[in-house]
Design goal:
The structure holds 2 protein chains of 2 kinds. By secondary structure, chain A is of the alpha/beta class. Chain A is built from 9 helices and 10 strands. Chain A is about 35% helix and about 25% strand. In chain A, strand 4 and strand 5 form a beta hairpin. In chain B, helix 2 runs antiparallel to helix 7, helix 2 runs parallel beside helix 9 and helix 5 packs across helix 7. Chain B is elongated. Chain B has a single domain, classed as Orthogonal Bundle (MetI-like fold). Chain B is mostly helical. Classes of the chains: A alpha/beta, B mainly alpha.
C-alpha cells in the first residue's frame, strides 16, 4: 500500500460545525478529528444530529458554518470542488438508495464510468470483483426490486467502494433491514474495517461498535456529549445522558 | 340523413385528410415532447429567473385556447416579419401549446422520484446533469409514458383546430364533402369514426401502460 503524504496527519478535522434547517438548529457546534484508518462509531438518540453530521461531511447537507478539513485540504464551498470531494468520500444510506432501473453490476459500475470517465469493460470487471467481495456475485444481473434489503445494502456498499474512497460514511446502514439479514451487512463492514478502511458509522449496533470501533462518539441534541473507546463509553459512561441512552439501547 | 355511400365514395379524400392530421400530430408531438422536457427541466433547475420565466410560459399557455395560439402564429407573426406556411405554423403552435402541458408531466415525474436517488448520485460525485441523465430521467421514463400517450390522443383531436387556418386536415375535408353533397352529417360521422380509430388504440395503450406501472 503506497504511503499517503498525509498519512501521518489527520484525514478529517471538524471544527465548530453548525447546521440549521430554517430556524431549527440541528447541529450546535461540533468538533472532532480522525486519523487515517480510524473507525469511528456515532451514537445518540434520534434527533441528536448524528445523521445530519455525517451528511454535512460530504456536503449532501451543506453545513451552515464551521470548518471541515479533509485529507489535508480545508473545504471551502466557494473554491473547493465539492464533486471531487464526494468522489473521495463514499456514502451508504439508511434507505440503500440503490438505482432501481439498473442491475447490481450496473449500479456498481455507474460511478466509475460516469464520474471517473473510466472504460466500461474495466469498470464492470472491477464491479464484478466488488460484488464478489460483498458476497453477491450471483446477483450481478439482478435489479434491486429482485433483491432483499440486505442484498441491496451490500450493492450500495460495493457502489461506494467502486469510487475508491478514502473515507466511508455509513448512515444507519442496518436500520431498514430485516433483523435476520443485518449480519450479512455487518460482516461486510467488519471486513472493510479489517482491510484498513477509514470509516464513520452511525449505528446502534453495540456488538459491531465493540468489535470494530476505535472510538465511539455519543451525541445528543446537536452536541457531542462524550467520546471514548467502546470499552470506556459502554462500560463506564461518564455523562448521565449517555448512561440513560445506553440503558435504553441495551434493553431493546 | 346518414348515407354510408357518401362516406364510402369519398373515403380516399377523407383518408388524405386523416394523413395530414396524423402527420401534423406526430411532428407536433415530437417537438412538444422535446420542448416540454427542456421547459420542465429549466423550470426545476434553471434557478430563480429562468424558473419564473418558464413558469410564466407554462401558466400563460395553459390558460389560453390552443386556437388562439394557432391564429396568433399564422395571422399575427407575419406582421413582425415571420411568415410560416400552414403546416409549420400549425405544428409550431400546437407544439408550443402542448410543451406547456408536457413540461408539467415531466416535472411531476421527476418530483415523484425519491430524494435519496439524487443524493446517492451526488454522493458518487455526479453533477446535477449527470444525475438527471443517468439516474433520474431513466426512472421517470415509465412514469411519463401513460400521460404522454394521453397527451398524444388529445393532440390528435386538437389538430382539428387547424381547419381555422384552412389546412385540409380530416375535419376540413369532411366539411368540404358536406358542402359539396349538401349532406353534412355523413362525412362528419365518417370523420368521427376515423378520429376514433386513431385515438382509441392510443388511449388503450396508455391504460395498459398505467396498469403495468402500478
Amino acid at each position: 500500500m503506497p504511503v499517503d503524504q498525509h498519512q501521518a496527519g489527520k484525514i478529517l478535522n471538524v471544527e465548530d460545525l453548525h447546521k440549521s434547517f430554517g430556524s431549527l438548529e440541528v447541529i450546535k457546534g461540533v468538533g472532532f478529528d480522525m486519523d487515517y484508518q480510524e473507525r469511528l462509531v456515532l451514537m445518540g438518540p434520534s434527533g441528536s444530529g448524528k445523521s445530519t453530521l455525517v451528511r454535512c461531511l460530504n456536503w449532501i447537507e451543506p453545513p451552515t458554518s464551521g470548518r471541515v478539513t479533509f485529507d489535508g485540504v480545508l473545504v471551502d464551498p466557494k473554491s473547493t470542488d465539492i464533486r471531487r470531494l464526494r468522489e473521495d468520500i463514499g456514502m451508504v444510506f439508511q434507505q440503500f438508495n440503490v438505482f432501481p432501473h439498473l442491475t447490481a453490476l450496473q449500479n456498481v459500475a455507474l460511478g466509475p464510468v460516469v464520474v471517473k470517465k473510466g472504460n466500461r469493460t474495466a469498470a464492470e470487471a472491477e464491479a464484478m470483483e466488488l460484488l464478489a467481495k460483498v458476497g453477491l456475485s450471483h446477483r450481478a444481473a439482478y435489479k434491486p426490486g429482485q433483491m432483499s434489503g440486505g442484498e441491496q445494502q451490500r450493492v450500495a456498499i460495493a457502489r461506494a467502494l467502486a469510487m475508491h474512497p478514502k473515507l466511508m460514511l455509513f448512515d444507519e446502514p442496518t436500520s431498514s433491514i430485516d433483523i435476520e439479514l443485518i449480519h450479512e451487512v455487518l460482516e461486510v463492514m467488519v471486513k472493510l474495517a479489517d482491510e484498513g478502511m477509514t470509516m464513520i458509522v452511525v449505528t446502534h449496533e453495540m456488538g459491531f461498535a465493540r468489535e470494530v470501533a476505535d472510538r465511539v462518539i455519543f451525541m445528543d441534541q446537536g452536541l457531542i456529549i462524550e467520546s471514548g473507546t467502546p470499552k470506556e463509553l459502554f462500560d463506564h459512561p461518564q455523562q448521565e445522558r449517555t448512561q440513560s441512552f445506553l440503558s435504553k439501547v441495551l434493553m431493546a | 340523413m346518414l348515407k354510408w355511400s357518401i362516406i364510402w365514395e369519398n373515403l380516399p379524400f377523407l383518408l388524405a385528410g386523416a394523413g395530414t392530421t396524423l402527420a401534423l400530430t406526430v411532428v407536433s408531438m415530437v417537438f412538444a415532447t422535446a420542448a416540454g422536457l427542456l421547459v420542465g427541466l429549466l423550470n426545476m433547475y434553471g434557478g430563480k429567473v429562468v424558473g419564473a420565466i418558464t413558469r410564466l410560459y407554462i401558466e400563460v399557455v395553459r390558460g389560453t385556447p390552443a386556437l388562439l395560439i394557432i391564429l396568433l402564429v399564422y395571422y399575427a407573426l407575419p406582421i413582425v416579419g415571420i411568415n410560416l406556411p400552414q403546416f409549420p405554423a400549425a405544428a409550431v403552435s400546437l407544439a408550443a401549446c402542448y410543451a406547456a402541458y408536457i413540461a408539467e408531466v415531466f416535472r411531476a415525474a421527476v418530483e415523484s422520484i425519491p430524494k435519496g436517488q439524487s443524493e446517492a448520485a451526488f454522493s458518487l460525485g455526479m453533477s446535477r446533469l449527470q444525475a438527471l441523465r443517468f439516474v433520474i430521467l431513466p426512472q421517470t421514463f415509465r412514469r411519463v409514458l401513460p400521460p404522454l400517450a394521453n397527451e398524444f390522443a388529445a393532440l390528435i383531436k386538437d389538430t382539428s383546430l387547424v381547419a381555422f387556418i384552412s389546412m385540409q386536415d380530416l375535419l376540413f375535408k369532411a366539411k368540404i364533402i358536406g358542402a359539396r353533397t349538401y349532406n353534412p352529417m355523413s362525412p362528419l360521422i365518417g370523420a368521427a369514426i376515423i378520429y376514433l380509430l386513431m385515438t382509441t388504440p392510443v388511449m388503450q395503450w396508455s391504460r395498459n401502460l398505467e396498469k403495468r406501472v402500478d
